[in-house]
Amino acid sequence: MDSSASSRSHSFHESFLMLSLALIILTISLIAQLMMRIRIWCSCEICQTFIQSRWTVRFTNLCDWYTHLLKESPTKTVHIHILNNIITANPDNVEYMLKTKFDHFPKGKPFSAILGDFLGRGIFNVDGDLWRFQRKMASLELAHVSLRAYSFEVVNQEIDRRLLPLMKSLAKGREVVDLQDVFRRFSFDCICRFSFGLDPMCLELSLPLSEFAVAFDLASKLSAERAMTASPLIWKTKRLLNIGSERKLRQAIKIINELAQEVIRKRRKFGFSDQKDLLSRFMTSISDETYLRDIIVNFLLAGRDTVASALTSFFWVVAHHPEVEAAILEEANKVIGINSNLTNYNCYEQMRELHYLHAAIHESMRMYPPVQFDSKFCSENDVLPDGSLVKKGTRVTYHPYAMGRIEEIWGSDCSEFKPERWLRDGVFCQKNPFEYPVFQAGLRVCLGKEMALLEIKSVAISLLREYRVELVRYSPVPLFSPGLTATYRDGLRVLVSHRSMNYD
């Protein structure tokens, strides 16, 4: 064996030994971490039910088991010791976390680490000065009438040029379609155009999904899966070794970064002062390309998944309540007219007058919020208003899904779908945001709330006025997949048919 071959062999064995040693150290650290933080020896009923998955005997979804626990708790708060997680459906606690002691309950480093590779330093993944800076900028930009008008223009073009023609084709062929997939494609097209000025054409079903859309979906899914591992050391080890899901995540994020950088550089080269999209507006104040990428990817995630989830649940629940569908159409007849369509000129006024539709959408999100729970990490030892002790570093989760089913908040009929609960003399009345934190509340309340609602209402009324949407398979309870937003595990398979103009 020559000296060079001997050297390569020695180098290989040395690398192998170093890798083996690293794996041994990480394994020992993982076991220690599990023993210290996860407390697998906890013998309380709740923890044992969680560990052994005994909750699946009675409940379809984990969120339904949490709801059961919270409803049974006198304080509407429970502690999952093995997860070091306090979960609450108590509005006083929610207000305390999101407003009164806002600085004591940040997103926290554990959460930021989970989504850090995907979302970077974007608004939904940071605290402190970085968050305040982006919040202020976003608030100013999203308040501009011109930006809201551009958002509405994008949504209406997607509806008229893609969504309705697609529905027409499906109705003609009597084809079964996954409406959840349609809404995810639709909302991704909209938010990409609004945020980037980029059209991925996801709703063109004759075309394959763009590489960017596929990469974005995968990055979102794999990032969410990090949060479900028993310990962060598991995914951190896989990331260090660049194996399995972490290797796929790295590849997906690389594709996202490359496209984002290309868009930013082209915009800078050819000018952005006359562009309407959000990226161009941020580029007037920020030059750091990585920071711009992070900000826009955060808006893409928030604007796509939440809107698609809200639309999916709305059509699921309306299909189960034909009387609500009839009331929505009756209101549309009076406000818009039987033979008239929504127009750019008077749409805002017409939408404001669709009080029952607005109520039905809010009621749908009460029962099926796009984000079923949200967590913060306590930065100091504290006591919640209900008396729950919170140690520094504890994860504290408020649960909008469960809160929508609490009798003390919504009354004895809280399990019923009743848009009327949002109306007073036929006029929509907003509820206490700390009892209904679907759009968060307090200092982190969703800045895009009004634009999201306008998009949801525009799609809902446009489809319902022209088409009947019939579920292929009846299900009394949706089955959700784990993730950052509520996703129907089996999709929403429907048959679409034309509706006569008198809505019979």
UniProtKB/TrEMBL annotation:
Regions annotated as coiled coil: none
CC cofactor: heme
Transmembrane feature ranges: 16-36
Domain of life: Eukaryota
InterPro entries recorded: Cyt_P450, Cyt_P450_E_grp-I, Cyt_P450_sf
Major localisation: membrane
GO molecular function: heme binding; iron ion binding; monooxygenase activity; oxidoreductase activity, acting on paired donors, with incorporation or reduction of molecular oxygen
Topology with respect to the bilayer: Single-pass membrane protein
Protein name stated in the entry: Cytochrome P450
Species of the source: Perilla frutescens var. hirtella
